[in-house]
Sequence to fold (255 residues):
Amino acid sequence: MALFTDGTVSTIDELLAYESSLLDVARTERIDLTGKLMLARQEIGIELTVFLVDRGGGEWSGIVWPALELKNIVVTEPLKKWHIFHTLGLVYRDAYNSQLNDRYQGKWKEYERRARWAAQALYRIGVGIVNDPVVQADKPALSSVAGPLPGALYYVRAAWVSVSGEEGNPSDLAVLSTGANTLLVAEAVNPAANARYWNVYVGMTIGGVTLQNNSPLLVGQKWTEAASGLVQGRAPGTGQAPQRYLRATGAFLRG
Fold:
């Protein structure tokens, strides 16, 4: 799962799953959907910060936990739903204030209600926490060297791995078209402070990238495609799973 601080919590496509006409509304009312996604994330981030500050560090289950920040929060399903519904509420609030259209007002109030429901569900289930957050990697740097393979279009993602083996959310896709008689080379850049290793995922289609290294590569180590070509490894992960869940009344460990 992604960390709250990795970037956008949810996407326009996920908003469209609830409102298929959203793009038409945004176009008609001149509403920046990307801006609303960012604003919703900022506002939810303030509420989550208050939640964390109110609890600070402390001892639960016989373990002393340090004070937490937004970077420790994992985007679980209730948190994603909160972000989706809050974003849609902001969109339809703006649409209503522009046109004073009762239909927009109804959707605004309905999504506000759903956002409150999702937030309450999150706090009841618990906010997902990781103690050593591994940030999402930047797009890897791509190049090529002389080799026996024909030219091809490659899609590549990188992911940081901590010393304990926790993998962060993989990067967005980097793309490179190589010439004939070459091999692809990838390098992870701007390493996270707690990154010890990295993994590389490569494919020739957007959805077909798979793990290429047998064991995690050291930070600073480049990966070069084998002369035999790509291998069919596992698909990219989605980041760290919560190690524990923080509720209003305390915390409990992942079972």
Summary: The chain is about 35% helix and 25% strand. Confidence is low (pLDDT under 50) at residues 251-255. The first helix runs from residue 12 to 16. The two ends are 17 Å apart (CA to CA).
